[in-house]
Structure formats: structure tokens, C-alpha cells
Design a protein that fits this description.
By secondary structure, this protein is an alpha+beta fold. The chain contains 15 helices and 8 strands. Keywords: Membrane, Transmembrane, Transmembrane helix.
Length: about 375
């Protein structure tokens, strides 16, 4: 029977050579997407930015949104109000076009630009590799394997070798042969970025396997009391789109409306606590409204169970926004680490194998 360390080394090697390349792609695309709000706003000031946005009230925003809804309701698929980098109102139509409107007067500002589409495609590659249907499972699976097995096996091997000399375990000797230099870089970056990479990979898996994450986190519900206070909008209450758009929520800002695809579909109203990118917990609210005006479901952060409150933080954890600018910078830097680990790990394996094979040939000769 092989010693445990040899088994762990094999697991680390094979997972590194297989899912390592997938995680590298996710890391690089994710690092680029961290600054999407700032870059998109800078590249599209006429479409996304409004100088007087701070003076525009919630009532005005909803009034403009309702006017656009009344004018185009039969052809509207989605309607987005100001959030993050977008200070304007955008409408997605059934023909696939997206137009942007001024939040005060409803004037058309233009249609979706190439740079906005670029970031949407970048996010699609990050989450699915651009492969329909199965891509998200490939990315999500590699993220889970990376966090549960690849990083933990690397930690096990590092701890076994350097537990009595931490300094040596994080030191890189630059004047070494290729094999040892790659090993030094690999083990040092691996241990230094272990925590952020674990959080990023684990939270990244949520976007594919959210159902399982939610079920798993339900074990936390017994550790915290939840009053389940009812919100102003209750299930089975009757409301109309007009009513909701003409009556701002006292605690949340309306972010988006998703319109029903058919007569049996539902309107989805999504709310957020803050329209800007801010550090801290992500607090949201959602309600679904049938064509008959009956609210079929409503949730909010305050009334959600602890498990739902936790999974709501997967996005800000994944992007680093939960801790503000420093968190985003850390996620940005960490996004480049998987590809460095992949390259150095592969080169270390190559040089070790190459030397071993050359040694065998020399002995034969």
C-alpha cells in the first residue's frame, strides 16, 4: 500500500494538469472582470453616466421606468434601473436590442456598445468557457475540485515538508536550477494565496451548483434565530406593475424587472439595498408577480433564513467587493496566480521527468 503522501502527490499532480488549465482561464477572465464597473463607465460615459444622478430621486427613476414600460410594454423583455456603473435606465427588447435612456426625461441615449458586449462575453467565458449548456458544469466542477482537493492537497504537502520551518516554505531562491526555481515559485505562491484562492474557487462553484450550496448551508439555520418578519408585500396580495413602479420601496431600490415570456409567466422585481458598489453584506429583495396581479413569492434579506443570507454573499465574496477596494485588488492579483501555479507546476513536473528519463538513458548507455 502506497504511503499517504505519495497518493496525495498523485492527486495533486493529476488535478493540477487537468483542471489547472480550466481554473487558469477562469482566473484570468475573472481578474479582468473585477474592474468592469470602472472600465465600462469610462468607455461609455454617454450611455452609462449622468452628471446629476445624485439629484435624481427614487420617485423620478420609477416614474421614468413606468413611462418606458407603458410605451413599449409589449416588446420589453427586461428593464434595468441604475446600479453599479450604470446610472441610466436600459431596456432589453424582444428583438434583442438594448437601448439606454436618461433617468429623468427618458430620452434615448443610444444602444449597447461593443465594449459593453465585450464585458458580457468575458463574463460568459468566465462562467461557461463560452460552451452552451455544459460549459458552466465544466467551470463549476473545476472550481470545486480546485478548492476541495487541489488546494488542500497542496497544503498537505507543504505542511508535511515545512511545518517546522515556515520561513523556508515561503522563500524563493532565484539563483537555482530550473526545476527547483519553478518548485520554489509554485509552493510559495500556493501557500501565500491559499486563503483568497479557496474563497474565490468555493464561491465560484456556487454559480453552477447553487441548489446544492443552498441545501448544504441549511444546516446553519439552526444556529441563528430568525423572526421571519413579514414585509409590506405579502404572498397572495394583489398588485400591478403600475402600483409597484409608482410606490418606491422604503428600504430597497428597484434594480430590475424581468417580464413574463407568456400569459402564464411572472414578473420578477429585483431590489438592492445600495445602487453603488459598496463594501459589506449584499442585501437584496425579490418578488414575483403573476399576470393576475397576485404576488406568488417575496423574499428579503431581513426575513431570509441564515442560509439564504449566506449564499447571497457568494457574489461579493467572489469579486472581493465584500471588503471594498482592497478586497477587489486582492482578487485581481489572485486571478493571475492559478496560471502561474499551472505553468510552474507543469515545468517542475517536466524538468523532473526529463532529468529522470535522461538518467535512465545514460545508465543504459
Amino acid at each position: 500500500m502506497k504511503p499517504l503522501s505519495k497518493i496525495v502527490k498523485k492527486i495533486h499532480l493529476y488535478l493540477g494538469l487537468s483542471c489547472g488549465i480550466l481554473v487558469s482561464i477562469s482566473g484570468l477572465t475573472g481578474a479582468m472582470y473585477v474592474w468592469q464597473p470602472e472600465l465600462a463607465a469610462a468607455l461609455n460615459p454617454k450611455l452609462l453616466q449622468v452628471e446629476s444622478i445624485g439629484m435624481v430621486s427614487e420617485e423620478t427613476l420609477l416614474k421614468t421606468a413606468f413611462a418606458l414600460y407603458e410605451k413599449h410594454q409589449d416588446s420589453v423583455v427586461k428593464l434595468f434601473l441604475p446600479y453599479r456603473e450604470q446610472q441610466t435606465i436600459s431596456v432589453v427588447y424582444t428583438n434583442g436590442r438594448t437601448l439606454y435612456y436618461h433617468p429623468e426625461n427618458g430620452m434615448v441615449l443610444g444602444q449597447k456598445s461593443a465594449s459593453i458586449s465585450f464585458f458580457e462575453n468575458l463574463l460568459n467565458i468566465h462562467r461557461t468557457l463560452g460552451v452552451p449548456k455544459v460549459g458552466k458544469y465544466i467551470v463549476g466542477g473545476s472550481a470545486v475540485l480546485f478548492s476541495l482537493f487541489l488546494l488542500t492537497s497542496g497544503l498537505f504537502l507543504w505542511w508535511k515538508k515545512y511545518r517546522s520551518n515556515f520561513g523556508k516554505g515561503v522563500k524563493i531562491k532565484w539563483k537555482r536550477n530550473k526545476k527547483k526555481l519553478n518548485y520554489d515559485i509554485h509552493k510559495t505562491l500556493g501557500i501565500l494565496f491559499l486563503v483568497p484562492l479557496t474563497f474565490m474557487a468555493f464561491s465560484g462553484g456556487y454559480f453552477t451548483y447553487n441548489t446544492y450550496y443552498k441545501k448544504g448551508f441549511t444546516v446553519m439555520d439552526g444556529f441563528a434565530a430568525n423572526s421571519k418578519l413579514d414585509t409590506l408585500l405579502q404572498e397572495n396580495d394583489h398588485f400591478s406593475v403600475k402600483t409597484l413602479l409608482n410606490n418606491p420601496d422604503e428600504n430597497y431600490a428597484l434594480r430590475a424587472i424581468y417580464f413574463p415570456e407568456n400569459s402564464t409567466g411572472t414578473y420578477q422585481f429585483r431590489y438592492i439595498k445600495e445602487r453603488k458598489v459598496v463594501p459589506g453584506l449584499r442585501k437584496t429583495k425579490e418578488l414575483k408577480l403573476g399576470n393576475n396581479g397576485v404576488i406568488s413569492s417575496t423574499t428579503s434579506f431581513e426575513s431570509d433564513l441564515l442560509s439564504a443570507q449566506i449564499v447571497a454573499q457568494m457574489y461579493p465574496i467572489h469579486t472581493g467587493e465584500i471588503t471594498g477596494l482592497l478586497g477587489r485588488i486582492l482578487v485581481f492579483i489572485s486571478g493571475f496566480v492559478p496560471v502561474i501555479l499551472f505553468i510552474t507546476g507543469f515545468r517542475y513536473y517536466y524538468f523532473r521527468t526529463y532529468k529522470k528519463n535522461n538518467g535512465k538513458k545514460e545508465r543504459k548507455n
